[in-house]
């Protein structure tokens, strides 16, 4: 009896391994016949990484066009204009004779901001009277407008502080006394996670993973959905010995390996080419990316199981992936969202993964801080398992074959 059981177990193991290998060989043949798969799993992500890296390679916006309306025409206004032009964020490119002309330039996109010096600015300052220098900023692009406004205001404040100190020195005060009275309170700010204020770190940390999960979902959906489209689901199941687990595992193994290679390439571009800081563990970082890939593959399986429609599943996958960017909490914190927004943010695996990724890359947080997010990602992976019976059922149902 014991020998018979051992032989049975051996045959079962042999059949499982054989079916698993047969599925892999079958998928390799399908990939060779469909060049579009190469674009989905390799060419498109790599191209998107290089495109994003080239767009944001400077890190922060520089030399944004700024116009001048100088009705004062004094040495002070010219000095202020030179100081603004010397900042990395701004470049004085044109002088306007009136605010009306400058406003038209802003509306037509010729300049991003206008610096206005009213007549009598220097005279009022020399008399000890308060005078205003007005800055008009096109804030249609919030980040660009905020950076430009902040940079110019700091420059004008520096000029104003210098004038106050010079005025006090002329009254006989020492340099130390003049500085203490001009700036009685000094703010010492320490930027912990991104001390370079590098916009590239912010945007690439979001867009790179989005490209990874987007094409990971596309590849998974295309691999499974094309079986329904071509009406070959029964052949697929028979090759797997009617086991949906073997059929899916063998089919998705190659795509998962490609996605893992893409994730490693993404890390190389981020930390070697762009130069983003990595203060934590690369092994933990890659483990989180592996779980992220599995979680989005699981969501792709759910979409195909629910729709059995290749085109509809791809459309839903793109919407689901891109909505995750909005609710990931990177540009707008989840803690500040209303209750509905907080709840909605938690249906996207990337919202958990971003926290783990930032912990290991920017914050230098302990490894234990990332493990809780692994648990949440595991929930999305397990969720897809509950839809495997549904996927197997529609695979044998001819009513779902041939759908686009």
The low-pLDDT segments are 3-12
* Strand tally: 4
Specify Rg, calculated over alpha carbons: 30 Å
- How much strand? 5-15%
Helix content: 55-70%
Biggest β-sheet: strands ordered side by side in the sheet: 2-1-3-4
General shape: elongated
Order of helices and strands: HHEHEHEHEHHHHHHHHHHH
Main beta-sheet strand count, sense and barrel state:
4 strands, mixed
Protein structure class: mainly alpha
User: Count of DSSP helices?
Assistant: 16
Give the distance, in angstroms, between the N- and C-terminal Cα atoms.
Answer: 52 Å
Write down the overall mean pLDDT: 80
Write a structural description.
Strands 2-1-3-4 form a 4-stranded mixed β-sheet, with helices on both faces. Helix content is 68%, strand content 6%. It contains 16 helices and 4 strands. It has helices spanning 2-33, 36-55, 75-86, 99-107, 121-126, 142-170, 175-182, 199-230, 233-239, 244-273, 282-307, 310-326, 339-345, 349-363, 368-385, 388-395, and strands at residues 64-70, 90-96, 113-117, 134-137. It starts with a helix and ends in a 9-residue tail after the last helix. The model is unreliable at 3-12 (pLDDT under 50). The chain is mainly α.
């Amino acid at each position: 009896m014991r020998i018979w059981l051992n032989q049975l177990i051996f045959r079962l193991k042999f059949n499982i391994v054989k079916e698993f290998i047969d599925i892999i060989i079958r998928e390799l043949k399908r990939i060779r016949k469909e060049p579009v798969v190469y674009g989905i799993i390799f060419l498109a992500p790599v191209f998107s990484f290089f495109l994003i890296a080239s767009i944001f390679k400077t890190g922060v916006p520089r030399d944004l066009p700024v116009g001048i309306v100088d009705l004062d025409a004094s040495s002070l206004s010219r000095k202020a204009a030179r100081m603004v032009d010397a900042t990395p964020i701004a470049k004085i490119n044109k002088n306007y004779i009136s605010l009306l002309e400058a406003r038209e330039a802003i509306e037509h996109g010729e300049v991003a901001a206008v610096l206005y010096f009213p007549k009598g600015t220097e005279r009022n300052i020399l008399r000890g009277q308060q005078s205003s220098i007005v800055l008009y900023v096109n804030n249609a692009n919030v980040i660009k407008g905020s950076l430009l406004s902040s940079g110019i205001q700091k420059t004008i404040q520096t000029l104003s502080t210098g004038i106050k100190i010079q005025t006090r020195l002329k009254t006989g005060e020492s340099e130390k006394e003049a500085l203490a009275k001009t700036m009685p309170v000094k703010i010492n700010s320490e930027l912990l996670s991104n001390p370079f204020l590098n916009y590239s770190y912010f945007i690439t940390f979001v867009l790179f993973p989005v490209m990874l999960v987007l094409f990971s979902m596309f590849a998974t959906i295309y691999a499974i959905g094309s079986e329904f489209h071509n009406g070959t689901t029964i052949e697929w199941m028979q090759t797997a010995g009617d086991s949906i687990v073997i059929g899916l595992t063998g089919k998705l193994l190659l795509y998962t390996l490609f996605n893992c290679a893409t994730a490693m390439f993404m890390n190389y571009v981020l930390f070697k080419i762009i130069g983003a800081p990595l203060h934590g563990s690369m092994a933990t970082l890659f483990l989180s990316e592996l779980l992220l890939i599995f979680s989005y593959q699981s969501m792709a399986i759910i979409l195909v199981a629910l729709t059995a429609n290749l085109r509809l599943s791809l459309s839903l996958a793109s919407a689901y992936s891109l909505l995750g960017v909005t609710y990931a909490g990177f540009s707008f914190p989840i803690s500040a969202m209303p209750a509905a927004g907080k709840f909605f943010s938690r249906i996207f695996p990337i919202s958990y993964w971003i926290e783990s990724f930032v912990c290991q890359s920017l914050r230098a947080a302990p490894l234990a801080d990332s493990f809780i997010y692994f648990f949440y990602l595991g929930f999305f992976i397990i969720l897809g398992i509950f839809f495997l019976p549904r996927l197997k059922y529609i695979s044998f149902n001819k009513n779902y074959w041939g759908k686009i």
